[in-house]
Predict the structure.
Amino acid sequence: MSKVTPISGFPEFLPSDRIVEQHFLDVIRETFELHGFASIETRAVEPVERLSNQGEDADKEIYAVRRLGAPADEKSDLGLHFDLTVPFARYVLENAGKLAFPFRRYQIQKVWRGERPQEGRYREFAQADIDIVGDGTLPFHYEVELPLVIADAFSKLPIPPFRIQVNNRQIPEGFYRGLGIEDVASVLRIVDKLDKIGADKITQLLTAENGPALSAETAKQVLRLAEISSTDASFVEQVRALGVQHEILDEGLERLAAIMTAANEHAPGLLVADLKIARGLDYYTGTVYETQLIGHESYGSICSGGRYDSLASDGKTTYPGVGISIGVSRLITRLFSQGLVKGSRSTPTAVLVALNNEDERADAMRTAIALRARGIPVEVAPAAAKFGKQIKFADRRGIPFVWFSTENGAEVKDIRSGEQVVADPATWTPPAHDVRPSIETPQLETPQENS
Amino acid sequence: MSKVTPISGFPEFLPSDRIVEQHFLDVIRETFELHGFASIETRAVEPVERLSNQGEDADKEIYAVRRLGAPADEKSDLGLHFDLTVPFARYVLENAGKLAFPFRRYQIQKVWRGERPQEGRYREFAQADIDIVGDGTLPFHYEVELPLVIADAFSKLPIPPFRIQVNNRQIPEGFYRGLGIEDVASVLRIVDKLDKIGADKITQLLTAENGPALSAETAKQVLRLAEISSTDASFVEQVRALGVQHEILDEGLERLAAIMTAANEHAPGLLVADLKIARGLDYYTGTVYETQLIGHESYGSICSGGRYDSLASDGKTTYPGVGISIGVSRLITRLFSQGLVKGSRSTPTAVLVALNNEDERADAMRTAIALRARGIPVEVAPAAAKFGKQIKFADRRGIPFVWFSTENGAEVKDIRSGEQVVADPATWTPPAHDVRPSIETPQLETPQENS
């Protein structure tokens, strides 16, 4: 057997970090459910042909899956899903007759991409998606609603301030068409690199003879559009001031303005209309979203999505959708690497029941049962060791309370303060914040005393 | 694109069944945490060589995983895990320096096995495992504790009565050695088929010249042992009455008796000492568990495990463990197929806020926010359609309440009873059992009225 080593790109957490991840997943799930999204899970595998052709580099990043016992010439035609949108679109087609539309679902699962691992880019990672899909049509107002759901979830999580950047692909498309540009997709792809390579380089690429070959003035206009952003609907005036006219542009501006106006009514300043946002995946057709943590802009988006009008179609009916996906692994590994969050202990246990001798185990189990019946996580000491050793057992795990049976009856010690009180397993309760592990934000709080 | 069809062995649930699955997973998780088990998740993949050689048919059932973009001659050396015990053992070795022992963990994840799909046997399925691992040694009392944790979880779930069958592999091993049998493993493997093929066939196999070639009297003794079972420690006398002596047998009997005695103190009748239980996986070395739903015995075990003393070893230190795994997918698909459980609705939503016209959407969203702030799942109607259509929208999903704004202010209608009352979004609350979807057990309850 080879030595045990981590596999690059497949992160695993120690228990105290997993407690943080669980807290994030619980808050996200709870928020999604409060907004009426139903949970589904899809299988990990899809036919490879369904996974293919969703974006330029996606194909070679797909993990193919094949039984070791399969005949050598049997083609492997299944692959692990690389996102949750493509499987969801397939699920909708497969179950259309049994679902009620518009169908709101959330999905929290692992996905796999064979790309080169680096900070925030993993080969296995968790995503938390919400999508709303209609049959035939999908009202526009859902494009306003989704980022508000995300904002609601994020407002309950211990994360840095964030901004959700919104655009509508119709804006650059209509604007480019109004400028007489024909190869809209190539120009979009170049502009998408603005943050990475800067305006000068973008101008070179846009005007290059072997590229879109735009005139200097047209390229300037393209850049002017990409540089527009606003936290309200005032971006419309800025675009109008550029003097370009096209009906697709008008529609895109109207829709993005409606999103900004509605969002500002419910969550002022949360959304930024940012006209350079495009998204890499090919299936988006209208509104697109990205999300930055303020102060961590170079890390890229931690929550993205958009509207897709033709991803799910069975030839007869089309199921247009809009969705947004929280990159849960991306988000929390950033918080861990920056020391922004940690779990208060490495176990759910709030109380360790100590033993004077092994004969007390049955009694100790009864004490544990009585405490658990009132929702208090408890374990019994592994052995009737010296008290110092049993307290050390609790301390190493961050278990705050140790329960003793003494000549005077049961007593419980807060091992942080040393305070010890008489206690009845039928009634004693730890302070509410000690019942479950909590999430600490070391850079925001005064460090807790820990004796 | 080929037609969308299910993939055999990869079950997916509709939203109302997923609500049942989530309830089961929540209860299991909550129980595991109350007993002080810390959550971990391991990556989906392990090196194939670590997955291999854990049981006779396991190898060819492993799914190998390989990037589509990998060079054609690159060996695929990763596979999807087929259980959660082997990855856990690897995790313990990898993180031994950072874990506190004995380490109690739970793990709820999908696993994959490329076996022939049939009812209750899937290629992708969810398991919920608890294990306790020590460094160097592991106290015996954990073998008593684990089935009590499972019983605690099951007692909170809407499932048929169940029995946990326990054995200790030392009992047949010591007994066989006491009889002078040398090839203990072969005899165990034959006896393991007793329920399937019956005593006569077992006798033939045991006495066959090209098999263990036992004498008729020895084979009879082997069968007598396998037929012993009791709900207390009285199995010991039954074994003693067979007159076989061996120190390994003595140790096995003592341990199993201790489990039965302790279990009967906390949960009388829950455990059955059943001396034919052996388990297929090779890594078990002592106590083994299986669990039957009473009335569904032919379905096989829905929760199994045991003690493994040498699965995790780095050459210097051995980490003995004991674990038990709930076959969550196996369990709930049985309940579904027998019509024993269903979700009360197909969405978390408890209240649909109806619209008189689209201009009311902002107000409706404020109503929704006010209700959600008090933990009530709400969605706003997709469109200002006729009221009948909006009520039908709620009815199709099982949403119990529809919120209207009328000339007299806000009112809320229970669409099952038709009752409609004046309501304030800041204070109105649905009955507690309507806030979240509930799990119905159609064969146990009077059917609910549903207008």
In short: Chain B has two domains: 15-342, 349-435. Chain B touches chain A through 94 residues (CB under 8 Å). The CA atoms of residues 416 and 451 of chain B lie 5 Å apart.
